[in-house]
């Protein structure tokens, strides 16, 4: 019997009500996260990667703003059917989240020890003293030097990297089964980013928890993720193991994305590859393939008909009519070089 | 490309277009009582930085946040007044110019900013924002200005009907193109670009980088390219200077710097860049700890607190920038 | 490039865009019911102020002693005061005085407050001086300061306007200053400096247009405040001098006969409440309209 995944998302749709009418920011997203796995969710701004992660925790105002369809199953329980109170106990306890900007995620008027202890007290039946001890322990786990001293400090006394470690400490304080990291290193310098990435991998191994790592940086994905989901305009366009995505990308968007990033060991004399145009607005979604307006391989079929997410070898999936053809051509070109 | 490089190397024997000498910028830090408490100390944001810009080249200034690279760029344009130093441009010291002369000089030295969202006035149509520099420098009449704006819109890859749009109707990449157009419309010689692509999405970033390169060739521009992303800097720059805590620690031709970095900080910076290749797990030079407070910088070499090769001398003596080979200078005691 | 052709294209694009923006703006406008109510009330009062005096048949200054303190009737719709003057006529003529004072004060304080606020935000040394003066003025209760100024200047309508403008300018200056400080830190101001723009151009060409929205909102509230304060001053006898009618001094007259002639207190009172409520609703609505944080449904 195949093991049940930790988190299973089926045909998730998130709609927003706006002045200009209803828009669907996430449109039929299906993926899963296993225990102990780091899943990378990649895409540019507006692709719906952050909305997806926030939908998992149901963070949008459902009375006025948002509406969800589909299923989000955490170990078999559909989160979308839970009451608000039940959902409250899941947030922070079973699923924790860390954000891009650690400064605005921390309350400036409380010490960091207080803030970690608070989230422990919220979900666990322990005394205040125990919670504080646990806070020190969590800070030690995240590699903060002299945690006994640091618990008494305020967020502004810490550097960006330290604050992100504190955020991770808060997230881990209730031993969640799933950690959602929404661009946690984007605001940090590369040398600090390297430290935080090492920390996330280490914690993932130690606690065997599932991690959804949302980012726009393909380098980060290659470094820490086991599987990757690529999103474009509210849909998944490609899903595969990390090696397959980088060695044999099937969707033209994934390929374009990879080629357009300047590489530290790339050829400088060559112009950077460019994905023409811009992402269409959510209220102006193309009729056929959503990437057709910017795709160099697009033909009539792409403009007219919506492609399905199809499965190829190794469980790699891509939403493209011409995936095989493009891969073949690519192979031929490579053969010529050799 | 190779021909162009030869031309550039040839030019380096000539006088530089812009010569920054011993630039310092210290910010006073006030005590908890503001003016009453007196000065608490000085933040040495830029400490004795010297470099040259040669005509037609791109000089990349790279470093992490708080290293003083943006302050350096702003000081050259005197958006921040320098504490000490010289900036020689066309036999004149930019820092000695009067307010009026300095304003006039800004026609030749322009700036492109990082944040495409706040760098355009939200109340002005794109056309108005682009005509403004022409009005400031009194170029042409109303009709000429409109034509110039149309031309520049085309040059940066926008449509003419963007003339009547407001900034909030444009995407980040489009706004950055407008920011570029605003700098280029007065026909400048030098562009100081402060993190011009770091706020943009990956696919848009490459569009803007290519545009910067095309325009450089077409308009014979010289770039001072300031960024934290060493991969981007490497792609666009001919020479790179690396800054750490207000100091320039290494400077070399791009390929030389990336292939044989000498300063331990440059090495760490290069090795921290995540590679988009899951099969290649490289050995990282992991830096210990965090950036020290610029209010109390370490004695001697400012990097010694995090340096894996720190020696006793590093704590006592400030290393000086010395040439190790042609076009490769480094400030580090390891090579003395 | 065909300039003629492109210009034709541009004009049509411009028109289309303007139409789109107008439609969206209108949609937002009418979706705010309270603001529409406030706006209609003020519009009604404006119309009354401007054309009302031509419609009423009685002279507001004509005293008919035998008709004194008459209750509302067909002849005198809102009754008469203790000198037998027609109350409807006095209230309508009074609205000219009261609304006029309110409007003038709002206009003068907007102008002065804008100049003070903008320059204070731009020059640090001016900031210290101007804001301390404003703090000083704001620390004295508005009515008290108004009475003191009226005592110094002498009671007439012009002086009421001057006194109230002095009282309320610091309020506008504070709002403009804090809005302008936010604008000053925006990159586009730095970009203008990098372009070599003069201080005049930066302040009036770039910072000023970005403070107009909070100014309009603040001016609406000042309008309302000025109406109340003028009424209070007149009620205390330090405002618009008799026999000129203003809502405040009609109330003052009515105070003495409040148990015999309720209409003299109730009707001017209703007018003050209506105008102040209308202006406040309008101000709140305008604030919602220009503040993107309160009206955007989407992320």
Keywords:
heterotrimer; A: 338 residues; alpha/beta; 8-stranded mixed sheet; 4-stranded antiparallel sheet; 13 helices; 22% strand; globular; B: 336 residues; Rossmann fold; 32% helix; disordered N terminus; Peptide/nickel transport system ATP-binding protein/oligopeptide transport system ATP-binding protein (chain B); P-loop_NTPase (chain B); transport (chain B); AAA+_ATPase (chain B)
Question: Would you give an account of this structure?
Answer:
With 338 residues, chain A is of the alpha/beta class. In chain A, 36% of the residues lie in helices and 22% in strands. Chain A has an 8-stranded mixed β-sheet with strand order 6-7-8-3-9-10-12-11, sandwiched between helices. In chain A, strands 2-1-4-5 form a 4-stranded antiparallel β-sheet. In chain A, β7 (178-182), α8 (190-207) and β8 (210-215) form a beta-alpha-beta unit. In chain A, α4 (112-123) packs across α5 (128-141) and α5 packs across α7 (160-172). The longest helix of chain A is centred in the middle third of the chain and has 18 residues, at 190-207. Chain A is globular and about 65 Å long. Chain B has 11 helices and 12 strands. The model of chain B is unreliable at 1-12 (pLDDT under 50). Chain C is an all-alpha fold. Chain C is 76% helix and 0% strand. The longest helix of chain C has 36 residues, at 87-122. The chains are: A alpha/beta (338), B alpha/beta (336), C mainly alpha (299). Chains in contact: A-B, A-C, B-C.
């Amino acid at each position: 019997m195949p093991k049940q995944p930790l988190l299973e998302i089926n045909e998730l749709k998130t709609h927003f009500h706006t002045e200009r009418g209803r828009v669907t920011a996430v449109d039929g997203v299906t993926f899963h996260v296993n225990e102990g796995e780091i899943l990378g969710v990649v895409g540019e701004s507006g692709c719906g990667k952050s909305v997806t992660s926030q939908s998992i925790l149901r963070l949008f105002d459902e009375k006025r703003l948002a509406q969800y369809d589909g299923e989000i199953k955490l170990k078999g329980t559909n989160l979308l059917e839970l009451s608000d109170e039940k959902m409250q106990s899941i947030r922070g306890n079973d699923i924790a989240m860390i954000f891009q900007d650690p400064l605005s995620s921390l309350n400036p008027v409380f010490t960091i020890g207080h803030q970690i202890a608070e989230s422990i007290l919220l979900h666990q039946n322990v005394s205040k003293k125990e919670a504080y001890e646990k806070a020190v322990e969590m800070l030690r786990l995240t590699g903060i030097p002299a945690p006994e001293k640091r618990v008494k400090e305020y967020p502004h006394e810490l550097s960006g990297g330290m604050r992100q470690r504190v955020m991770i400490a808060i997230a881990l304080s209730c031993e969640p089964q799933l950690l959602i990291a929404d661009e946690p290193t984007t605001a940090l310098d590369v040398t600090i980013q390297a430290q935080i990435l090492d920390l996330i991998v280490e914690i993932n191994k130690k606690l065997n928890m599932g991690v959804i790592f949302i980012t726009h940086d393909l380098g980060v994905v290659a470094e820490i993720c086991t599987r990757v989901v690529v999103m474009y305009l509210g849909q998944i366009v490609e899903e595969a193991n990390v090696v397959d995505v980088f060695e044999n990308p099937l969707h033209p968007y994934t390929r374009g994305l990879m080629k357009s990033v300047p590489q530290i060991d790339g050829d400088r004399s060559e112009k950077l590859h460019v994905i023409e145009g811009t992402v269409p607005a959510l209220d102006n979604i193309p009729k056929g393939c959503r990437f057709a307006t910017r795709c160099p391989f697009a033909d009539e079929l792409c403009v007219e008909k919506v492609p399905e997410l199809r499965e190829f070898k190794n469980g790699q999936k891509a939403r493209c009519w011409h995936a095989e053809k493009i891969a073949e051509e690519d192979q031929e070109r490579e053969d010529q070089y050799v | 490309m190779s021909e162009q490089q030869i031309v550039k190397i040839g030019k380096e024997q000539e006088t530089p277009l812009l010569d920054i000498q011993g630039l310092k910028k210290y910010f006073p830090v006030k005590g908890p009582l503001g003016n009453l408490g007196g000065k608490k100390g000085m933040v040495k944001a830029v400490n004795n930085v010297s470099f040259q810009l040669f005509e037609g080249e791109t000089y990349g200034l790279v470093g992490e946040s708080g290293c003083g690279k943006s302050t350096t760029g702003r000081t050259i344009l005197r958006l921040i007044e320098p504490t000490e130093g010289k900036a020689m441009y066309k036999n004149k010291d930019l820092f000695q110019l009067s307010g009026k002369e300095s304003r006039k000089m800004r026609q030749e030295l322009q700036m492109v900013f990082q944040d495409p969202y706040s760098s355009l006035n939200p109340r002005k149509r794109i056309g108005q924002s682009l005509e403004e520099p022409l009005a400031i420098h009194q170029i042409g009449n109303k009709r000429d200005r409109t034509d110039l704006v149309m031309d520049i819109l085309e040059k940066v890859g926008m449509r003419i009907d963007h003339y009547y749009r407001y900034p909030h109707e444009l995407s980040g990449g489009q706004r950055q193109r407008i920011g570029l157009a605003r700098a280029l419309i007065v026909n400048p010689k030098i562009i100081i670009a402060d993190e011009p692509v770091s706020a943009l999405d990956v696919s848009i970033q490459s569009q803007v980088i290519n545009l910067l390169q095309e325009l450089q060739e077409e308009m014979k521009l010289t770039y001072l390219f300031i960024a934290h992303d060493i991969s981007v800097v490497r792609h666009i720059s001919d020479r790179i200077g690396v800054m750490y805590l207000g100091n320039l620690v290494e400077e070399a031709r791009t390929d030389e710097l990336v292939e044989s970095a000498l300063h331990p900080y440059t090495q760490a910076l290069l090795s921290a860049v995540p590679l988009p290749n899951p099969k290649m797990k490289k050995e990282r030079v992991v830096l210990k700890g965090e950036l020290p407070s610029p209010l109390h910088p370490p004695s001697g070499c400012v990097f010694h607190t995090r340096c894996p090769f720190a020696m006793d001398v590093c704590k006592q003596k400030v290393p000086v920038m010395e040439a190790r080979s042609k076009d490769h200078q480094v400030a580090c005691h390891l090579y003395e | 490039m065909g300039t003629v052709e492109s210009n034709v294209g541009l004009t049509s694009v411009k028109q289309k865009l303007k139409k789109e923006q107008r439609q969206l703006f209108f949609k937002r406008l009418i979706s705010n019911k309270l603001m529409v109510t406030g706006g209609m009330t003020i519009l009604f009062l404006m119309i009354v102020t401007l054309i009302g005096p031509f419609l009423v048949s009685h002279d507001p200054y004509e005293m008919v002693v035998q008709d004194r303190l008459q209750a509302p009737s067909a002849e005198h719709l809102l009754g008469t005061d203790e000198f037998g003057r027609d109350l409807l006529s006095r209230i309508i003529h009074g609205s000219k005085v009261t609304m006029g004072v309110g409007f003038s004060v709002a206009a003068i304080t907007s102008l002065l407050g804008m100049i003070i606020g903008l320059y204070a935000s731009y020059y640090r040394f001016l900031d210290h001086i101007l804001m301390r003066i404003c703090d000083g003025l704001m620390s004295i209760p508005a009515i008290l300061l108004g009475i003191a100024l009226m005592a110094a200047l002498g009671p007439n309508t012009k002086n009421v306007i001057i006194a109230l403008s002095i009282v309320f300018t610091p309020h506008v200056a504070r709002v403009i200053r804090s809005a302008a400080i936010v604008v000053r830190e925006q990159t586009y101001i730095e970009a203008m400096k990098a372009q070599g723009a003069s201080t005049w151009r930066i302040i009036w060409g770039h910072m000023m247009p970005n403070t107009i929205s909070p100014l309009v909102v603040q001016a609406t509230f000042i309008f309302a405040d000025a109406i109340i304060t003028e009424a209070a001053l007149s009620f205390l006898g330090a405002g618009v001098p008799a026999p000129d009618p203003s809502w405040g001094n009609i109330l003052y007259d009515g105070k003495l006969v409040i148990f015999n002639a309720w209409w003299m207190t109730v009707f001017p009172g209703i007018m003050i409440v209506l105008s102040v409520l209308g202006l406040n609703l309008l101000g709140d609505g305008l604030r919602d309209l220009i503040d993107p944080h309160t009206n955007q449904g989407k992320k």
